Amino acid sequence: MNKSALRVLRMVAKWQAKGAVESYDKDAQHEFARKVADDSIVLLKNEHHELPLDKQSSLAVIGELAARPRYQGGGSSHVNAHQVVTPLAAMPQTATYAQGYGLASDAVDDELTAAAVNLARQSQQVVYFMGYPEEMESEGFDKTTIDLPGNQVDLLNQLVQVNHHVTVALQNGSVVAMPWADQANAIVETYLAGEAVGEATWDILTGKVNPSGKLSETFPLRLADNPTYPTFNSEQNEENYHEGLFVGYRYYDSKQLPVRFPFGHGLSYTTFSYHDLKVTDNDDQVQVEFQLTNTGDMPGREVAQIYVGNRVSKVEKPTKELRDFVKVSLEPGQSKTICRTLERRAFAWYNPAEKRWEADNGRYEIYVGSSVEDIRLQQSLDYELGQDPLQKVTAETYVVDIVNHQSPKIKSALEQTGLGRQLTAILQSDSAQIFENIPLRSLVMADIDPQVVQKFIELANI
């Protein structure tokens, strides 16, 4: 114990501040935190233009998370906030609050429920704060569900029976299952929005700020849809990740699995159109150019996303992968030309056997859109990146990979061994399709001497 304490004291002595601590404007930092939250909050759903809220209508604010918000992570991520402004403190002066449920337990409190339902019945609009209590999300343990507490969901079911203008404001650090999503006209995802959570939430709800946040993860319909579901936590001593590249949206998109809200999703109070896509191959770069127009009647910002689909490499690849994005501010009716550059790395994949990044010549798809599912523009590209690398030639290398490769070393080895003439002959026969798709070791079926094949392999790898 003494040794451990001494190490801490030595560290304190070594790194203690020298001289006066530099001061900074905490109020200015609070305003910055508010702006960051404004930029990050995601409008997931907005049916019948439920949002922005009607300032002339009576408003009920319901949920203990309005008074005791989740605004930061759990465990060691805790910080001492300068000024936490809760949604309750920042709500419009004409709004009325009811607690509705307790965070300490997921049991239904009949008295709190009745008061909240009665308030909703008397109000024209409802903003209902839902989310995970801090005890459900922290370091040091794994969650066992992505469902919200039962008392919160039970109250929502009752609120929508007495009021048809319910907006759900979520506070959570990870995805939420929403079997109840169809019941709410609007859903706003605030995540853990920082000390200005109250002000930022109402900035979005009232339309003071037009939402422009996008999801950086996929919200599945249910936990069992996650690619890790069958194997996660199945062994006591180790965790094996079998999904490989197919993590997150790469899995859901490639499998064409329905989701609640896709990666990159996020609505606005205005609308945007994408048009006039031009894709240009400039040697080791690809230029992607398109027009983006604000077709609504409010200023807004859109996060335009560029995905690349690899159709050539003979390795497992997702249907498409995000390779670039840009946030664009537009006034109503305004258009901007967006020009982005995709470097060679955007088309590359890592070869663990060769311990290097490789990019292959051939067909790629360029997608531009508002989310991984909401693709507005698409164009094919036959991209030439130079000589395709050929892996070490072995008896398992397929014939088609040899005959299609144009490297001088392969051509020379084919000529020196005479294997090139023999392959040409069999690939002009009626059995060409069969022989293209066999490994070199199987050429014995075409009466080709295995020693000739072995000599070719040796020369090809010099």
From TrEMBL:
Keyword line: Hydrolase
Gene Ontology MF, one: beta-glucosidase activity
GO BP terms in the entry: carbohydrate metabolic process
Pfam families: Fn3-like, Glyco_hydro_3_C
Signal peptide positions (record): none
Domain Fibronectin type III-like: 302-372
Claim: Hydrolase is one of the keywords in the record: yes
Family of this protein: Belongs to the glycosyl hydrolase 3 family.
Protein known as: Glycosyl hydrolase family 3 C-terminal domain protein
